[in-house]
Amino acid sequence: MNRSTIGDVAKRAGVSKSTVSHVINNTRFVEENTRQKVFHAIRELDYRPSSVARSLVSKRTHTVGLLISEVRNPFYSEVIYGVEDVALAHGYNVFLCNTSYDLDRGLRFIQSLIDKQVDGVLLMSSNLSPSWLTELEQRHIPSVVLDWEVKTTGEFLSTIQLDFETGINAAVDHLIKLGHKRFAHVSGQLHLRTSRVRRDIFLNALQRHGIDPAEVAVVEGNYLIDGGQKALAELLSAAQRPTAIFAANDLTALGIIWAARDRGLRVPEDLSIVGLDNIELAAQIVPRLTTVALPRHEIGGLAMNMLLELLDISKEAPSQSKTRTQVVKSSLVIRQSTAQPPNL
Amino acid sequence: MNRSTIGDVAKRAGVSKSTVSHVINNTRFVEENTRQKVFHAIRELDYRPSSVARSLVSKRTHTVGLLISEVRNPFYSEVIYGVEDVALAHGYNVFLCNTSYDLDRGLRFIQSLIDKQVDGVLLMSSNLSPSWLTELEQRHIPSVVLDWEVKTTGEFLSTIQLDFETGINAAVDHLIKLGHKRFAHVSGQLHLRTSRVRRDIFLNALQRHGIDPAEVAVVEGNYLIDGGQKALAELLSAAQRPTAIFAANDLTALGIIWAARDRGLRVPEDLSIVGLDNIELAAQIVPRLTTVALPRHEIGGLAMNMLLELLDISKEAPSQSKTRTQVVKSSLVIRQSTAQPPNL
DNA sequence: TTGAAAGCGCTAACAG
DNA sequence: CTGTTAGCGCTTTCAA
Q1: pLDDT digits (tens, 9 = 90+) for A41-54
Q2: Which nucleotide is nearest to B22 (CA to C1')?
Q3: What is the pLDDT of residues B135-177, one digit of tens each?
Q4: A91 in the same domain as A70
Q5: Which of B51, B80, B98 faces A117 most closely, judged by CB atoms?
Q6: Nearest-CA distance B126 → chain A (Å)
Q7: Which residue from A43, A212, B63, B220 lies 20 to 30 Å from B52 (Cα-Cα)?
Q8: Which domain holds residue A35?
């Protein structure tokens, strides 16, 4: 009735538990004859080793936790996909933890993951609390964090930095070259660090081209379509309308584009829009969106690979922890949502 | 150095392991005094019980597996979100398993989940193999499957049926009432059961209105935007152009709409489009999409709740397994992508 | 070439 | 009111 154990197999095959264990794990020589008997018994009983029991002794669960802000955000979907892919290839399972941008909720996930003894954790949510890190470092749990400044005290912490600068600078160069002079930005929620980073890079780039940041309208969006839509309304009611808008992400850019169309503004003839993310849709909407691209799928894969590296080391040579920092560059994908400003 | 165990706590508090266990789990009376000593020791050692060890004895992991076809599909994102939400609320963690429509890959996931002793499994991928089910039933693992005809032999299997019929029928009624006579359908991959179901419901509904299914063009798409785009090209090259197209899902519908615009066709003036899913985008594109809606978030939550029900019962009263079947209805959301056919 | 036995961290009789 | 003890299903010395 109940699932069979290694003891059942041993009895059935007429050998000891340790022999069974060894043939399963190929961990010492066993005579071909007895090997076959064991395999037979396994087959007959439909035996599968319990990873719970294994984990109890080995201290490894072949499981990792993945914290993200929001599954429904296409950016994270891609990242998840990348993580999943290399995890599966290496025999790991992943606990998906959707923090919903809630730090407390995230902390509860972390604790639950620790209780479940995950081998490592991927911290990819766009906001994270230092308490998460201390919780993990205290327990020596290998982690990799995405896009977050961290005093890399830990010997178990690798980081991936997203270089938004390269791509955003290129975008500004591109717009300036087209002749734009009046800019605006629709940010993400400004209490999120990443929102401020994107904004500041944009403003700095403009400043290098002699444009006073104080004259650049910044409206706060929410990384969602409706945020972009509302932001555009606000921008259009200003005295000086911008001719080019940089959106904090593609969803926001879509919102802007559609809201513009609703108001009879043509993109890019009347208004140039640049997004950020390069979600799948970006290449398919009309007009196809000019955007700052991040290799999302690769980011997921890279993160998981870096984690695996940490795991190998923490197992094999606990002394020489090789925590890494990797930078992932953004780049500008020029499509059809940008053009010369009107009246030129 | 290493994480402290219940033994450490017991020693520190000067009591036995069982006492510690009992105060942690509130499982028998312990004098307030000793309770406090135990809590103190726990605090001092920063002790957290190992769920691995617990699971070994309790046979429960408070973990479930969630199989879906594709994280990047917005439909699944929402479902995942719903599942996650109620899972967290009940102290469960979820293993995300992205099958990529690959039956073998799915089977490997299932086996891995069984090895890891998940308490239950949510089978929500759009195609599944019978072998998955037998694997699960053999091990008496409670499962709920989404939208799949299953000879409900198992006492551990609940099902959710998606009633596409209500919504699709309403869509056809709507189009007929508008005056359409020439219809087409862009399906999903026809080797997927759900694709055939959607198509057949559509064709049957038309037939009830006196329209010969043989005269309805059906082009195979892929549930993605580009599939819709290519399909439209094919449909337009036919002698008899349709005036109304039913797309197997919203992404496909978007593809059709955008491809139509690229070719100078106006939606809905020249061509009416109905989608299926009601993804977030559907309400925000121009024109806003008329579509057959499924309550995706609720589906995820419902599934997880049904699974929890199964778990409770399999724990508390193994005799009276209450496997359920629940039907989730679709409905038509009328927006702006449908109108009277041209030349009327 | 194989077995016996200890132990991983916890729970749950069974005693007292 | 609390402690002792025997497992849960596996891996891994240590012996033979």
Answers
A1: 999 999 999 999 99
A2: C11
A3: 999 899 999 999 887 776 667 899 999 999 999 999 999 999 9
A4: yes
A5: B51
A6: 17
A7: A43
A8: 6-58
Answer whether residue B70 is part of any domain: yes
C1' nearest to CA of A56: which nucleotide?
C8
B243 belongs to a structural domain: yes
B51 & B67 share domain:
no
B145 and B242 in a single domain? The answer is: no
Using a CB-CB distance cutoff of 8 angstroms, which residues of chain B are in contact with residue A97? 84, 93
Pairwise CA distance, residues A11 & B303, whole Å? 41
Residue A196 falls inside a structural domain: yes
- The domain that holds B17 is classified in CATH as 1.10.260.40
Helices A74-89 & A296-316, crossing angle to 10 degrees? Answer: 40
ω before A49 within 30° of 0 (cis)?
no
B46, B95, B116 ranked by CB distance to A51: nearest: B116
Alpha helices in chain A (DSSP H): 6-13, 17-25, 32-45, 51-58, 74-89, 103-115, 130-138, 164-178, 193-208, 225-236, 250-262, 296-316
Average confidence (pLDDT) over A25-47? 93
Find chain B residues with C-beta within 8 A of A95's C-beta.
63, 93-96
Which pair of structure tokens corresponds to residue B303? 């599934």
CB-nearest partner of B55 from A52, A258, A262: A52
CA of B74: which chain A residue's CA is closest? Answer: A72
Give the CA B65 to C1' C3 distance in Å: 38
**Res. A224: pLDDT tops 90:** no
Report the side by side order of strands in the sheet with B244-247: B217-220, B183-187, B244-247, B272-277, B290-293, B331-333
Q: Does A139 fall in a domain?
A: yes
Is residue A92 pLDDT above 70, yes or no?
A: yes
> How large is the average pLDDT for residues B49-66?
96
The CATH code of the domain that includes B308 is: 3.40.50.2300
- Joined together, the tokens standing for residue A200 give 């500041």
- Do residue B133 and residue B179 come from a single domain? no
Min CA distance, B184 vs chain A (Å)?
23
Task: Say whether both B183 and B130 belong to one domain.
Answer: no
Is A50 near strand D, with its CB below 7 A from some atom of it?
A: yes
User: ∠ at Cα B309 (B303, B310), nearest 5°?
Assistant: 90
Q: Cβ contact (<8 Å) for B117 and A50?
A: yes
pLDDT at A126: 85
In one-letter notation, the amino acid at residue A173 is: D
Task: Report the predicted TM-score, pTM, of the whole model to 2 decimal places.
Answer: 0.88
For residue A156, pLDDT over 60 is answered with yes
Please determine, for residue A60, whether its predicted confidence score (pLDDT) is greater than 60: yes
Same structural domain, A146 and A225 = no
Of A63-77, A304-318, B196-210, B322-336, which range is least confident?
A304-318
Number of domains in chain B: 3
Backbone angles phi, psi at B19, to 5 degrees: -60, -45
Alpha-carbon gap: B210 to the closest alpha carbon of chain A (Å): 37
